[in-house]
Amino acid sequence: MAKGKFDSRPMPAEFLEWQVKLRAWTVQERKGVPHVGVAPLVLARQPGVDPGVSAHSVVCGLLPRPDLLDTKTKEFRSLYESASPEGSQILYDRGIAYLRRYYAAVEDFDPASITTLVQKDTALVKALRASPECALVFHVFEIGGKAPGAAMRTQQLACRAEVLSEGPVYDNVFWHNALFHGLADDGVVVHFHHERSLDTRFGRLEPLRD
Hints:
Mean pLDDT: 94
Helix content: 25-40%
Radius of gyration: 17 Å
Low-confidence stretches: none
Largest sheet: 7 strands, antiparallel
Structural class: alpha+beta
Number of strands: 7
Shape: globular
Number of helices: 5
CATH topology: Pnp Oxidase, Chain A
CATH superfamily: Electron Transport, Fmn-binding Protein, Chain A
CATH architecture: Roll
């Protein structure tokens, strides 16, 4: 598990498997256009906003497992630096080709981390700096959809958020993002450390376990 200032616990194995398969499918079938299943709402404490929380949409990412983190970061950066002089479309296409191999195995990913990259002056970042306790809500209602494992689910992940502007996790997310969106020099990485997961479909509040 990627180290940070907070302890974390593995996400349910089925959830991580779904996330990896969903990303592999979007790369193969949609040229990387994100599915709603990788775009959770972040619920953060927000004094002065009824009912005391705010909800923010993000596109989230998965980290390589710790022993692969540095290697994958170097590969992202090398790909960016070699392809970007040839133009954004060439860079994007080579990034997609890389990701077709990248999402091949669930065990290559950190089971306790989710990340996102956002602008550093957003309300979400300010809220998480003030209070790191938060929740990620993954909601999909897609009867008849073709995406793997995404027909109907609402899962809430309780997390503690670490806002990063440097370091190994920041570097990995920064260079991954650069392949498709350019250099985000005005951004920060939010590293969500998973604590527990709940099934909240149709009024439920049930713990999810392996």
